C-alpha cells in the first residue's frame, strides 16, 4: 500500500508523542504522560484511516495494544 504525505505526517507525530509519553513516565509525570499517550494513539489512528477519511467511506479500525 502506498503511503501518502498525510499518513507519513501522522505516523511521525504518533512516534513523537509516544516517545514523549515514555520520557514523562520515567520522570513520574503521569498526568502529562497519559495525555501524550492518548495523542499518540489518535495520531496513529488518524494516519491509518487517512486514505478513507478524505474519500468519505465508512471506516472500521481495530487497535491492538502490546505491553
Write a concise synopsis of the structure shown:
With 67 residues, the protein is mostly helical.
Number of domains: 1
The profile of the biggest β sheet is: none
**Which oligomeric state applies?**
single chain
Percent range for helical residues?
over 70%
State Rg. Answer: 14 Å
Label the structural class.
mainly alpha
Low-pLDDT residue intervals, each spanning 5 or more residues = none
Summarize model confidence as the mean pLDDT.
Answer: 76
**Helix-strand pattern:** HH
Shape: elongated
As a percent range, the share of strand residues is under 5%
Whole-Å distance between the termini? 27 Å
Number of helices: 2
Number of strands: 0
Helices and strands in order, then pairings?
Layout: H1 5-26, H2 30-55
Helix pairs in contact: 1-2
Amino acid at each position: 500500500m502506498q503511503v501518502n504525505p498525510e499518513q507519513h505526517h501522522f505516523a511521525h507525530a504518533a512516534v513523537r508523542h509516544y516517545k514523549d509519553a515514555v520520557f514523562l513516565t520515567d520522570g513520574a509525570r503521569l498526568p502529562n504522560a497519559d495525555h501524550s499517550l492518548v495523542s499518540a494513539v489518535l495520531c496513529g489512528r488518524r494516519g491509518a484511516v487517512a486514505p478513507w477519511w478524505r474519500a468519505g467511506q465508512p471506516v472500521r479500525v481495530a487497535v491492538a495494544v502490546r505491553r
